[in-house]
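Encode chain A's predicted structure.
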Amino acid sequence: MIGRALLTLLSHYTRHPAQLAMLLVGLWVASALWSSVQAINATAKESYARANALFSADTDQLDRLDGQPLRMDDYLALRRAGLPVSPLLEATIPHEGVSLTLLGIDPLTLPTGEGSGSLIDFITPPWRTQLAPDTLPSLGLNRGDGPGTRLTLGDYTLPPIQLRSDLPPDTLVMDIGALSALMGEQTTLRLVTEPDAIERPPNGYRMTRAASVASPSS
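Encoded structure for chain A:
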Protein backbone atom coordinates (compact mmCIF):
# COMPACT_ATOMS: atom_id res chain seq x y z
CA MET A 1 0.00 0.00 0.00
CA ILE A 2 2.72 2.42 0.97
CA GLY A 3 4.81 1.38 -2.03
CA ARG A 4 1.90 2.06 -4.38
CA ALA A 5 1.43 5.53 -2.86
CA LEU A 6 5.10 6.31 -3.31
CA LEU A 7 5.00 5.17 -6.93
CA THR A 8 1.97 7.40 -7.51
CA LEU A 9 3.74 10.43 -6.01
CA LEU A 10 6.89 9.70 -8.00
CA SER A 11 4.88 9.42 -11.19
CA HIS A 12 3.14 12.73 -10.43
CA TYR A 13 6.33 14.67 -9.78
CA THR A 14 7.99 13.09 -12.83
CA ARG A 15 5.27 14.68 -14.95
CA HIS A 16 5.41 17.97 -12.94
CA PRO A 17 9.09 18.65 -12.05
CA ALA A 18 8.38 22.31 -11.22
CA GLN A 19 6.11 21.25 -8.35
CA LEU A 20 8.83 18.94 -7.07
CA ALA A 21 11.32 21.81 -7.11
CA MET A 22 8.90 24.06 -5.22
CA LEU A 23 8.28 21.33 -2.65
CA LEU A 24 12.01 20.85 -2.05
CA VAL A 25 12.56 24.61 -1.76
CA GLY A 26 9.68 24.84 0.73
CA LEU A 27 11.15 22.04 2.86
CA TRP A 28 14.58 23.72 2.80
CA VAL A 29 13.14 27.09 3.85
CA ALA A 30 11.09 25.52 6.65
CA SER A 31 14.15 23.66 7.93
CA ALA A 32 16.24 26.83 7.87
CA LEU A 33 13.56 28.80 9.71
CA TRP A 34 13.20 26.09 12.35
CA SER A 35 16.97 26.08 12.94
CA SER A 36 17.01 29.88 13.23
CA VAL A 37 14.15 29.89 15.75
CA GLN A 38 15.91 27.27 17.86
CA ALA A 39 19.14 29.30 17.83
CA ILE A 40 17.28 32.50 18.81
CA ASN A 41 15.46 30.71 21.63
CA ALA A 42 18.71 29.28 22.99
CA THR A 43 20.37 32.72 22.93
CA ALA A 44 17.37 34.35 24.61
CA LYS A 45 17.29 31.72 27.36
CA GLU A 46 21.01 32.17 28.04
CA SER A 47 20.69 35.97 28.17
CA TYR A 48 17.68 35.75 30.49
CA ALA A 49 19.48 33.35 32.82
CA ARG A 50 22.51 35.62 33.00
CA ALA A 51 20.38 38.71 33.61
CA ASN A 52 18.29 36.91 36.22
CA ALA A 53 21.42 35.83 38.09
CA LEU A 54 22.87 39.33 38.08
CA PHE A 55 19.86 41.40 39.03
CA SER A 56 17.12 40.77 41.49
CA ALA A 57 16.26 37.08 41.48
CA ASP A 58 18.37 36.62 44.62
CA THR A 59 17.60 39.86 46.44
CA ASP A 60 14.70 41.57 48.17
CA GLN A 61 14.06 45.19 47.15
CA LEU A 62 12.87 48.22 49.11
CA ASP A 63 10.86 51.11 47.67
CA ARG A 64 9.26 54.18 49.22
CA LEU A 65 5.56 53.95 50.00
CA ASP A 66 5.00 57.53 48.84
CA GLY A 67 6.16 56.61 45.34
CA GLN A 68 9.05 59.08 45.40
CA PRO A 69 12.41 58.00 43.97
CA LEU A 70 14.87 56.55 46.45
CA ARG A 71 17.74 58.84 47.45
CA MET A 72 21.07 58.20 49.10
CA ASP A 73 19.57 59.76 52.25
CA ASP A 74 17.20 56.77 52.36
CA TYR A 75 20.11 54.38 52.11
CA LEU A 76 22.11 56.15 54.83
CA ALA A 77 19.12 56.30 57.17
CA LEU A 78 18.38 52.60 56.75
CA ARG A 79 22.02 51.64 57.30
CA ARG A 80 22.16 53.76 60.45
CA ALA A 81 19.08 51.86 61.62
CA GLY A 82 21.05 48.65 61.25
CA LEU A 83 19.31 47.33 58.14
CA PRO A 84 21.58 45.40 55.70
CA VAL A 85 20.60 47.20 52.51
CA SER A 86 22.88 47.80 49.54
CA PRO A 87 22.60 50.65 47.00
CA LEU A 88 22.45 49.99 43.27
CA LEU A 89 22.53 52.80 40.71
CA GLU A 90 21.14 52.27 37.23
CA ALA A 91 21.30 54.37 34.07
CA THR A 92 20.66 53.84 30.37
CA ILE A 93 22.68 55.17 27.45
CA PRO A 94 21.59 54.75 23.79
CA HIS A 95 24.54 53.89 21.59
CA GLU A 96 24.30 53.21 17.85
CA GLY A 97 20.84 51.69 18.07
CA VAL A 98 21.55 49.70 21.23
CA SER A 99 20.29 50.59 24.71
CA LEU A 100 23.15 50.04 27.14
CA THR A 101 22.39 49.48 30.83
CA LEU A 102 24.93 50.92 33.27
CA LEU A 103 24.92 49.58 36.82
CA GLY A 104 26.78 51.05 39.77
CA ILE A 105 27.20 48.59 42.64
CA ASP A 106 28.78 48.56 46.07
CA PRO A 107 30.55 45.17 46.13
CA LEU A 108 31.23 45.54 49.86
CA THR A 109 27.51 45.43 50.73
CA LEU A 110 25.82 43.78 47.73
CA PRO A 111 24.30 40.48 48.95
CA THR A 112 25.14 38.51 45.81
CA GLY A 113 28.79 39.51 45.98
CA GLU A 114 28.97 40.95 42.46
CA GLY A 115 32.16 42.52 41.23
CA SER A 116 34.64 39.84 40.29
CA GLY A 117 38.31 40.40 39.62
CA SER A 118 40.50 42.63 41.74
CA LEU A 119 38.32 44.41 44.29
CA ILE A 120 40.88 47.18 44.78
CA ASP A 121 40.96 47.91 41.04
CA PHE A 122 37.16 47.86 40.90
CA ILE A 123 36.49 50.31 43.75
CA THR A 124 39.40 52.76 43.34
CA PRO A 125 40.26 55.21 40.52
CA PRO A 126 40.44 54.77 37.61
CA TRP A 127 37.95 51.97 38.49
CA ARG A 128 36.80 49.29 36.03
CA THR A 129 33.86 48.80 33.65
CA GLN A 130 32.87 45.14 33.66
CA LEU A 131 31.07 43.75 30.63
CA ALA A 132 30.52 40.45 28.82
CA PRO A 133 32.67 39.67 25.76
CA ASP A 134 29.53 39.51 23.59
CA THR A 135 28.83 43.17 24.43
CA LEU A 136 32.01 44.31 22.67
CA PRO A 137 30.47 44.32 19.15
CA SER A 138 27.67 46.63 20.38
CA LEU A 139 30.40 49.08 21.36
CA GLY A 140 32.27 48.77 18.07
CA LEU A 141 35.03 46.80 19.78
CA ASN A 142 36.50 43.30 19.56
CA ARG A 143 38.35 41.06 21.98
CA GLY A 144 41.62 42.71 21.04
CA ASP A 145 40.21 45.95 22.46
CA GLY A 146 39.31 44.26 25.75
CA PRO A 147 40.98 44.73 29.15
CA GLY A 148 42.22 48.24 29.87
CA THR A 149 40.48 49.94 26.93
CA ARG A 150 38.90 53.30 27.79
CA LEU A 151 35.46 53.61 26.21
CA THR A 152 33.74 56.89 25.30
CA LEU A 153 29.96 56.91 24.89
CA GLY A 154 28.79 60.33 23.78
CA ASP A 155 29.86 62.75 26.51
CA TYR A 156 30.90 59.99 28.91
CA THR A 157 34.32 58.38 29.20
CA LEU A 158 34.00 55.14 31.11
CA PRO A 159 36.58 53.44 33.34
CA PRO A 160 38.88 50.86 31.68
CA ILE A 161 37.15 47.72 30.42
CA GLN A 162 37.29 44.43 32.31
CA LEU A 163 35.70 41.38 30.64
CA ARG A 164 33.35 39.20 32.65
CA SER A 165 31.54 36.32 30.96
CA ASP A 166 28.64 35.95 33.42
CA LEU A 167 27.13 39.37 32.71
CA PRO A 168 24.10 39.77 30.42
CA PRO A 169 24.60 41.42 27.01
CA ASP A 170 24.72 45.23 26.75
CA THR A 171 25.16 45.62 30.52
CA LEU A 172 28.08 47.59 31.94
CA VAL A 173 28.89 47.26 35.65
CA MET A 174 31.10 49.59 37.66
CA ASP A 175 31.58 50.86 41.19
CA ILE A 176 28.68 52.94 42.46
CA GLY A 177 30.99 55.90 43.11
CA ALA A 178 32.30 55.76 39.54
CA LEU A 179 28.81 55.76 38.01
CA SER A 180 27.63 58.53 40.34
CA ALA A 181 30.58 60.70 39.34
CA LEU A 182 30.02 59.86 35.68
CA MET A 183 26.27 60.50 35.37
CA GLY A 184 25.15 62.18 38.58
CA GLU A 185 21.38 62.66 38.82
CA GLN A 186 20.75 60.79 35.56
CA THR A 187 20.81 57.57 37.55
CA THR A 188 18.05 55.69 39.39
CA LEU A 189 18.73 54.30 42.86
CA ARG A 190 17.53 50.92 44.05
CA LEU A 191 18.00 49.38 47.48
CA VAL A 192 18.44 45.62 47.71
CA THR A 193 19.08 43.16 50.51
CA GLU A 194 19.61 39.45 50.97
CA PRO A 195 16.35 37.44 50.91
CA ASP A 196 14.55 37.54 54.26
CA ALA A 197 17.39 39.51 55.88
CA ILE A 198 14.74 42.09 56.82
CA GLU A 199 11.70 40.49 58.45
CA ARG A 200 9.32 43.35 57.66
CA PRO A 201 9.76 46.61 55.73
CA PRO A 202 10.60 49.67 57.83
CA ASN A 203 8.07 52.47 58.18
CA GLY A 204 7.58 54.36 54.95
CA TYR A 205 8.84 51.53 52.72
CA ARG A 206 7.48 48.47 50.98
CA MET A 207 9.33 45.23 50.31
CA THR A 208 9.38 43.20 47.11
CA ARG A 209 10.56 39.71 47.95
CA ALA A 210 13.07 37.89 45.74
CA ALA A 211 10.68 35.06 44.94
CA SER A 212 8.19 37.48 43.36
CA VAL A 213 10.70 39.32 41.15
CA ALA A 214 10.65 37.82 37.70
CA SER A 215 13.28 39.74 35.78
CA PRO A 216 15.29 43.01 35.58
CA SER A 217 12.54 44.64 33.56
CA SER A 218 9.78 43.87 36.10
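The longest strand covers residues 86-95.
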